[in-house]
Amino acid sequence: MNTLRIENKRASISVRSPIVVNQLGAEIRAALADHWSRPLIIDHPADRAPWEIAPEADVLLTRPLAGWHKAPAEKPAGWPFGLRWIQTASTGVDFFPAWLLDGPVVTVGRGISADPIAEYVLAAILGFEKRIHDIRPRSREQWKITPLGSLSGKTIGIAGFGAIGRAVVERVKPFGVNIRVLRRSAWPYVIPGVEPADSIEKLVEVSDHLVLALPATTRTARLIDADVLARAKTSLHLINVARGRIVDQNALLQALDEGRIAGATLDVTDPEPPPDYDPIYDHPKIVLTPHVSWTGGEDVKRLADKTLVNLDAYAHGVPLADVFDRNLEY
After folding, report:
1. Is 291 a catalytic residue?
2. Which of 149, 169, 249, 315 is an S-S bond match for 37, by CB 3.0 to 4.6 Å?
3. Which residues does 83 contact at the CB level (< 8 Å), separation at least 6?
4. Which parts of the sequence belong to the D-isomer specific 2-hydroxyacid dehydrogenase NAD-binding domain (predicted)?
């Protein structure tokens, strides 16, 4: 988000004005309209499939909610037409068809919603410990002192140390907690107050609150399964703000029913949304929200800033930022 822009107040004669299909709304259009490259912006009709784009376009700005869940299994005839770059609003790409990722360079909205998601995580942790809504007295008879939980001395486990994981660390540090983090890549340096975890099993064993902030890949699918949950403390509170398929939901429900873990806060599920009558909807130990943890921040402004940085780079012919890596799957 702090990437420096390559600005040029006058478009060079050698720079062709990019033709941009915009599926991200009026605010993004307004941010791009005055760009020095003089882009021709085509607003995509809301009632048209997101892959049915103007064939002359070389840039596509899109998001999962544009209708990609209805995409055909095989790429449409002519795809990707003249596209040379696709910018997505989301960090994860699992909502898109595989053929969208197997063509022009794809850049993602990495880190855009890290702050509101981290605030959601903090709210979930404090809500679990303090239980303010649960202890509200409804009568004089219910007016009783009930001991509340505390974060001091507790262990916060974080699986995934991208922008979301780092934002969570910043917010929980002042509460006097122990922080353990599992990350895929090697630790390049020591982070004060953060202790690395060697495996998901080791992380689960010590965590009182476990935050899932991992990308959804073939390696992370069903990462939290029955075997992993069997290692958990009975006090464990699981928080998933990543993707539903990282958790084996049947194993999670069984662990909750049998009292082997204490609770879960789920902003994502598999499938999403869950089918009617799924026990996840009214389970007494689950706080369920409809994939909203990313909302409430300045995500539109941050997305616009990120897109402008990449539009600068694209117009100058230099590498783009936050490119999707097909090998890592994020």
Report:
1. yes
2. 315
3. 53, 57, 58, 59, 60, 103, 104
4. 123-293
Domain 19-112+298-316, CATH class in plain words: alpha beta
pLDDT tens-place string over residues 29-39:
999 999 999 99
**Number of residues that this document lists for the chain:** 330
Angle of helix 299-316 relative to helix 26-33, nearest 10 degrees?
Answer: 40
In terms of Cα–Cα distance, which of 317, 158, 144, 184 is closest to 238?
A: 158
Name residue 156's beta-bridge partners. 179, 209
Residues 55/84, Cβ–Cβ less than 8 Å:
no
> Does position 55 have pLDDT exceeding 70, yes or no?
yes
How far apart CA 104 and CA 324 sit, in angstroms, is: 11
Tell which phi-psi region holds residue 125, choosing left (phi > 0), alpha (psi between -120 and 50) or beta.
alpha
CA angle 225, 228, 229 (to 5 degrees): 80
Which residues contact residue 168 at a Cβ distance below 8 angstroms, ignoring those fewer than 6 apart?
Answer: 118, 121, 122, 156, 158, 211, 213
Q: How far apart are CA 25 and CA 201, in angstroms?
A: 43
What is the enclosing helix (H) or strand (E) of 22? strand 19-22
Tokens standing for residue 146: 């009930």
Q: What is the pLDDT of residue 247?
A: 98
The residue from 44, 110, 243, 245 that is catalytic is 243
Rounded mean pLDDT of 279-283?
97
Which pLDDT value is given to residue 65? 83
Q: Where are the domains of the chain?
A: 19-112+298-316, 114-288
Q: For residue range 204-256, list pLDDT tens digits in order.
A: 999 999 999 999 999 999 999 999 999 999 999 999 999 999 999 999 999 99
Q: Is the CATH number of domain 114-288 3.40.50.720?
A: yes
Which of 119, 205, 272, 329 is the catalytic position?
272
Helices and strands (DSSP H and E) totals, the chain: 8, 12
